[in-house]
Amino acid sequence: MNSFFLFSFVLIFNFTNGQDFDDSVRKLITEKCIKDIDTWKKSLRKLSAELLQCGKLEACQDFKKQTLHDNIYSLYQLDSFAKLPPNLLGFNKVWSGDYDECLEVENPNDNTYQTQFCWAHLNLPIGKILAKSGDAVKTVSTTCGAGKPTDVKMSICMPRSCSEHDLKLALNHLRILPMTTKEYLNHSIVPVDDDKFVCDVTCRPVNFEPDYLFWIVTVILGTITFICVVATIADYYQEVENEKMEMSLGEKTIKERGVSEEGIFKYFLAFSMLSNGRSLMRISKNLNNLKGVECIRFISFTWVVSGHIWGTWKNADNPFKIIDILKTRSYEIWLNAFFSVDTFFFLSGLMLSYSFLPKLSKRKAMDPMVWAVFYLHRILRLTPAYLSFIIFYATYGPLTDFGPNELVRREDMENCKKYGWKNLLYINNIYEPRKNCLSISWYMASDTQMYLFSPLLLVAFLFGLIPGILFSITVIVLSTFLNYWLFLHYDLPLTLIQAYMTGDEKIIHILQDFVYEAAYIRIPPFIFGIVMGFVMLKTKDIKIHMNTSVVFACWLVSFILSLGSIFTIHSYNRGDYWTPMQRASYYGFSRIAWSISLSWLIFAINRGQSGLIGKFMSLSFWTPLGKLTFCAYLCHIMIVNAIFNLERSPPHFVGAFHTYLTKVIPSVVVSCVFATIWTLLFEFPFAKLESYFILKLVSRKSSEKKKECTKI
């Protein structure tokens, strides 16, 4: 116990020895904040004096219990501060204290005194450290600040009355942190930004305060849930009654009665979770349906999740170990998760041409009504689930922003309230893309823009394979030319990871907004999908016989193209210099190679050239998982952040297996559970209503067609 008191005294003495606020600083900080900081420091001084007295007497019999009771909170507050962590040589840049200890601080003499857990972002000479490191990290930006690649931060526990601005001024004036810059030691009150010891302070949310929008959304969610529950009960009782009537009147009479009773009630039953649940689990027996698509879709979704979890490791306390991954070739599968999005684009084009071209003729292509319905279907099919989740994300998303770790992008959620209209118009990747709502929604915008352009491609294939191929090649060449121009003109890095490591906002903006998220750059896989959909249509009634050696050669080429697309970039990621021409060539042609590989995979699975691979990818359990990917994609980033935030310690990278076991699999499972709920509440009900509306719009009265169109 004496050792503990001695240690506590040393800690308090070092802290309370700092200088007090000058008058010039007091004018810049709120009065309540200064009062609370002064109160805390006085409590520490009183506690220090008593500990010193106790130390001199070598016993604590005379220790004043009342003083201890009144001031011990100040020691707990100080104790919750960060200390120097282990693994400093591994560049441990997250120095975390005790989050729960900080929030539990209570001043027995002042009920209004409350504390908050904050991060002080330190301006340290990281450049000198990285200059002695491997090639892979020499280009890393050394800019100080929250979210920067080399952001070094230590946690502090300060009065809740202090704003982030107050704390930044206070920490740069008071000598209360363990290290300083030259200007800091000279008591510079307001140094220039580059010389400030603390360049930024960010505080973690303490309480969630719902606004009026939160309660409006809650009422809407509750109402829709209530409607779904009532519709489910009504649907169930209707089935029970129909079964009883079938036994007494016969099946034919029931069918006729069912048709006659259709009306407003069928719109209400569109919200039945019973029938929608069956739609989710339904396995189509149509032999013309493409096999393997749902498997590819779901596996690509898990790839997206793992890629975003990799991005979250930038907040880890052992970044050098993560950077070492760049030297390991096998991790390119993880680093190059970008190809998962190209897979989604390919599948989008594939399913569009395969499902729409059989319904299209040259005569119908001249009818504006056909294209009006074509576009209207897309908007009405996606928007309800998409818009409802954006609203949910903006209002309920902040509830996932808890704990000490800064992982949730609050700005992203706030932007949904200001700029969510851009997502509604599917232009969020074009108009002011830096002010984004739900950052992953750029994919929705790009895919919709490709869909808007697709009629030109579809009509070209109406005139035959050659016109369609020629037009497709023309678009791909133009896209590739733009790709080359952007890389050569701006000397862009190859990946977003490399761009963010530079810290150059202009480079990040150009690569992300004009290349990575741009439909005109990402369109080649979509076009390959449309071409492949046309090929699959033309060969669906043809029995194809291929020589075994030819099939083997095609599989071999497919593997080489796909693996080459993923692993060729390894030398660049580990630090080797690539010329702008090499970077542009890889970025443009790797996606073409990937699309060719996917094309063979689809062809082989559906034309009997895939063996066990095709059988596995055609298993029925993939179907419901594939149907969930849309809503799972929308929600997964919120789920990933919430899972990381469950931890009270900074993220710590162990390895790929550990990450998949503790992060990727839980994130995928929870995302699918959330997606199931969202699919049953929003996607399927409104998809049915959309199909009813479209059928009514085009005046298709045939009941058989109605039943076929309302299947999901």
User: If you average the pLDDT, what whole number results?
Assistant: 84
The rounded distance between the terminal residues' Cα atoms is 70 Å
Shape: globular
Task: Give the number of domains.
Answer: 2
- In helices, the fraction of residues equals 55-70%
Structural class: mainly alpha
Provide the gyration radius in Å.
31 Å
GO molecular function: acyltransferase activity, transferring groups other than amino-acyl groups
Domain Nose resistant-to-fluoxetine protein N-terminal: 30-188
Protein name: Nose resistant-to-fluoxetine protein N-terminal domain-containing protein
Transmembrane segments: 212-237, 333-357, 456-486, 519-537, 549-572, 584-605, 625-644, 664-686
Architecture blueprint of SSEs:
Elements: H1 2-16, H2 23-26, H3 31-57, H4 65-79, E1 94-95, H5 99-103, E2 115-122, H6 126-131, E3 152-159, H7 164-173, H8 182-185, E4 198-203, H9 212-249, H10 251-260, H11 264-269, H12 273-281, H13 293-312, H14 319-324, H15 332-335, H16 338-356, H17 362-365, H18 368-396, H19 410-424, H20 442-462, H21 465-490, H22 496-502, H23 505-516, H24 519-538, H25 548-567, H26 570-573, H27 580-606, H28 611-617, H29 622-645, H30 656-697, H31 703-709
Parallel strand pairs: 1-3
Antiparallel strand pairs: 2-3, 2-4
Helix pairs in contact: 1-3, 3-4, 9-10, 12-30, 13-16, 13-29, 13-30, 16-20, 16-24, 16-27, 18-19, 18-29, 18-30, 20-21, 20-24, 21-24, 21-27, 22-23, 24-27, 25-27, 29-30
